[in-house]
Amino acid sequence: MSTATKPNHIGRKISRIRELKDMKQEALAQALGTNQQAVSIMENSETIEEEKLIEVARALGVSVEAIKNFSEEGVFNYFNSFSDNSINQGPIGNQNICNFNPLDKLIEAYEENTKLYERLVQAEKDKVEYLEKILKDK
């Protein structure tokens, strides 16, 4: 008895696409308007009705053809077709080009944080002033 999955097992293909998209069964179930158990049953089914397959494809953000033609080997071939230019080609293929000064971004974040802190302190002062006014009026 073979443990390999059948190449046309639509439920398994859906399961792998969902996993590659880092989506849990619960999230897919919510997108389909059903429960996690129904998604589990669907992923264990070898065939799925065309209408349901269209709904699943829409929920996963892929086409029906992508589900039907999905293969693990195709995914690996796709990612292996990329080369790491920074290692293979040196500075010519370097893709890590910074278009801004990171220190400028750090200073901007610090200034924004300071402004937010000052607004928070002012809001607290206003609240204390308001409460003192209420106490004084009593």
TrEMBL record:
Keyword terms of this UniProt record: Coiled coil
Highest taxon, organism lineage: Bacteria
CDD domains: HTH_XRE (cd00093)
InterPro entries: Cro/C1-type_HTH, Lambda_DNA-bd_dom_sf
UniProt xrefs under Gene3D superfamilies: lambda repressor-like DNA-binding domains (1.10.260.40)
Keyword set includes Coiled coil: yes
Domain HTH cro/C1-type: 14-67
Any coiled-coil regions, as ranges: 106-133
Gene Ontology MF terms: DNA binding
Protein name: XRE family transcriptional regulator
Organism field: Flavobacterium cupreum
